[in-house]
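Q: Hi! First time doing this. I have a protein sequence and I read that you can turn it into a structure. Is that right? Here it is:
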Amino acid sequence: MTKAQLAVTLYMQTQFLTGFIYHPCEERLSDLLNGVGQPESRGRFLALSDVTIEYADGKKERLSSAYINKATIELATGGDSSRGIGAKAGHKPYPFVEKSPLPVRLRLPAYVLIGSMHCTSGQRAWHVMEEKRMFLPLTNVRIRPRTNGIWWTAPFAAVNTEQILSWQEEDSVNGDAQAPL
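A: Yes, that's right. Below is the predicted 3D structure, encoded as structure tokens:
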């Protein structure tokens, strides 16, 4: 199986890291983080190369490689491999399951997110939240650090479910950026 480098950003409570992970082509970032598929991706640590760490005080550190404890990651964003076969046009082969977007707001220790969770027919948001996976995939995500009012966007984010303090369903996918935390 061919492997490629995927640029990722890992958001933690006091810092964020940018770098590259090796992943099998066509594997989604959320699957890699959840340990689905490849045996080497099932561990507690994520191998990151060409790493830049940006601390809350503005200092930066460069490392050739680092191993990041997945439990400390609040959310991760990455490139196009974040989306599965559902993002491709045309017929969807097995194991594709049709899902519908459901707008949600998540509160983490250091971030607030508004984005789309994806539910199968008859599935409710709380069903998805109760699943036994470590990282929840969201699309069309708006992210805001709790320390300032600046929102930015990402087409995809994988959110550590153990870091979610609270969540709610939103009226629209964009949500109200002015709504209280």
